Amino acid sequence: MFAAGEGVLTLVDSLVMGCAVLIVMSTQISWQHTLLALLPMPLMALAIKRNGDALHERFRVAQAAFSSLNDRTQESLTSIRMIKAFGLEDRQSAQFAADAADTGAKNMRVARIDARFDPTIYIAIGAANLLAIGGGSWMVIHGSLTLGQLTSFVMYLGLMIWPMLALAWMFNIVERGSAAYGRIRTMLEEAPAVDDGTEAVPAGRGVLQVAIRDFIYPQASKPSLEQVNFTLQPGQMLGICGPTGAGKSTILALLQRHFDVTHGEIRFHDLPLPILQLDSWRARLAVVNQTPFLFSDTVANNIALGKPDATQAQIERVAQLASVHDDILRLPQGYETEVGERGVMLSGGQKQRISIARALLLEAEILILDDALSAVDGRTEHQILHNLRQWGEGGRSLSAPTACRRSPRPVKFWYCSMGILPSEAATRRWPCSPAGTATCIDISSWRPRSTRFRRRKRRPWMRSFTELWPTLKRLLAYGSPWRKPLAIAVAMMWIAAAAEVSGPLLISYFIDNMVAKHTLPLKLVAGLAVAYIGLQLLAALLHYNQSLLFNRAAVGVVQQLRSDVMDAALHQPLSEFDTQPVGQLISRVTNDTEVIRDLYVTVVATVLRSAALIGAMLVAMFSLDWRMALVAIAIFPAVLIVMIIYQRYSTPIVRRVRAWLADINDGFNEVINGMGVIQQFRQQARFGERMREASYAHYLARMQTLRLDGFLLRPLLSLFSSLVLCGLLMLFGFSAVGTIEVGVLYAFISYLGRLNEPLIELTTQQSMLQQAVVAGERVFELMDRPRQAWGADDAPLSSGRVEIDHLSFAYRGDRLVLQDITLDIPSRSLRGAGRTYGSGKSTLASLMMGLLPVNPRRDPHRWSTARIPQPQRVASGHRDGATGSRSAGGYLLRQRRAGPGHQ
């Protein structure tokens, strides 16, 4: 994404400059000479095309591996409570390290192809220079070209280096982008599970008729439902009962048109659902799923999800109907309390009842409760069902509870067994009190609710390099295991730089001592040509190998760093996940570490290579003429000033870019996880607008960096180089100090032109350096947090007795969740915590598991305590050669270490 904008800018810059140089070379000097010099270019294009095709395929595989690593990170961090409950932190960390190693291996396969691009360009440029000098010398001797024109032509050819390197880099980016876009296009072109209809749902109350002969899930071979037939009249409540896996939720999914019926049909207003517009049909539905999902927003905004313009009175009214109003008032900020990611600050029962209030606020014609009261105690469940009766006559409530007998009104109950629902004649009725009337809601105090992101306050950052050095030093320390390969790579850089700068020296000697004197001794010319070709091939070979060494070190560093960051995240106290969005953690483990990889591959490699090239060119210039060299180095103070100004203004911009990118990742993570709720409440456009806002803010921050680069770097440094060149001509070309030989002038101009590029690269690397340091700070901030503390006793437990003595606990401040709890559970006995929702049962279980800080013992305590958390999660993976999914409460429990006190 970052390279795309810079790639377009580079493409335009290189094309304009390259075309301008070619036009001048062809029209002002010699078109025949230009064609001769460009003969190696078709071969270069073929080589780049071949490498590009290989890069495309390998980058696609590497992106797939990186996607799997993201999936592993997201699954581990979103399932952190299950992982901690079963003591699987070390196991998950080891699995992540294996995935990181696989991703690194695939990235190295990409690096082997990527490293071929620059050497190919340098060999082509060297061959073009050789042809230009050889052919031009013959033309000078035969009088069709002057010595000045030959020198100018070679200088223009030197100006072609940047456009050709830029085009090769752009081709690299295009191939990478093409592979990435192919993955995106696959998703965009995926056909929806159901087709939208054309008819709007008729106004007024309608009869819902269900006649399903059978339904088979995609990719399945056996029916999940058979012979489901019922009719739901206006004002009627229907309960669907049955064992787990009987198909209750499948029926409700078909009613919502997540899938279409395989054989049979569902009708509303005597119209088949497939011909109805999806948005129009789903507007008649309000759904509460088995697993409630709340967004990291306030309680009020979560309730008002499907009706953003709801008033506070309306919100409180539906909260009272869901029996959650009093609980909300007891929260720190009442309805304005942030619930955390997935509502982590609330109990399971509170989340379910807020989800019910959210559905009731829609005042939909059909209310679907999919086991929505499973985490609610019996008394509250009875009260909620009683309130639903008072909610209004016009609604139809479809429920899939596991305990149907608690309904306080006339209900038809259907027993679903193994996907088969009998006909209406086989059902029974439970008599209850008559239905109530609808309730009016006051809308006099209407006020619109915000639909925008709750942005964090950001403070500007302007820090000096000395302030960035501690983080940079720590990042570089990760490369210590690869000191030897890096040292070899640096040595290769210096040798390659010496080989590169030797080329203009040879050409200068050839022009001044042979071409200018109109003499071309064959053996000497052949020797110079062989030396020039050998130096160019040596430089290309060294460039390729040092690039591989830097990539190998970078892959190793990122692999180790990712493993360390993930291990630190997994071993954080559970309380950290109550306030830290998982999307932010995922961004640190994957995206930030990927930026740090660029520190070694691009920043360190470029800085060292540019320093070697600058040093070698300075040595060459001083060897030619020390007075001219002193004038040439006058550019360095100006460059230093530009770098200081650039660093000052780029730091806060880079931090904003990284922060917005983390926000986008966080937003995507929440949207993907809550997509079912978003679609049920028809909020796709609203959440899409939120993501567009965040993306646009990130775009504006990126545009600031591009403006800064475009203003401070190439224009100013090019201007400084031109001023230095004018100074050389004024001092040594038209003064008593002495004239300049043509070959020496060519060498100096060539060095000045090439000196501009490493100086620009050194300055531009500050942007990437800033990004790497900011990413490093975010990573190290996570790694430096205190880990889960355990006692020193590591011995196996000898007794299953649990004793709790006057325990009090608060998540924040002095708001106690548990107060003065005393409990004694003998070995091999059963105790049940039967208090109401929100009373601290889950907190007590977390404390007993050692997941919250009350001086717990080490892992043996958790290994002797098994817990199935409220939001049950299933871990993806494979076992015994069969891929698929495994139950956390089945497979993982069998991994327990059974001891004498295990209960």
TrEMBL record:
PROSITE patterns: ABC_TM1F (PS50929), ABC_TRANSPORTER_1 (PS00211), ABC_TRANSPORTER_2 (PS50893). One of its GO terms (molecular function) is ABC-type oligopeptide transporter activity. Residues 1-176, 487-771 form the ABC transmembrane type-1 domain. Pfam families: ABC_membrane, ABC_tran. It is an enzyme of class 3 (hydrolase). GO terms for cellular component: plasma membrane. SMART domains: AAA (SM00382). CDD domains: ABC_6TM_TmrA_like. Keywords: ATP-binding, Hydrolase, Membrane, Nucleotide-binding, Transmembrane, Transmembrane helix. It is found in: Cell membrane. Residues 210-443 form the ABC transporter domain. The chain crosses the membrane at residues 7-25, 31-48, 121-141, 153-174, 486-511, 523-542, 599-622, 628-646, 716-749. It comes from the Bacteria. PANTHER family: ATP-BINDING CASSETTE SUB-FAMILY B MEMBER 10, MITOCHONDRIAL, ATP-DEPENDENT PERMEASE MDL1, MITOCHONDRIAL. This is Putative multidrug transporter membrane\ATP-binding components. It comes from Klebsiella pneumoniae subsp. ozaenae. The gene is mdlB_3.
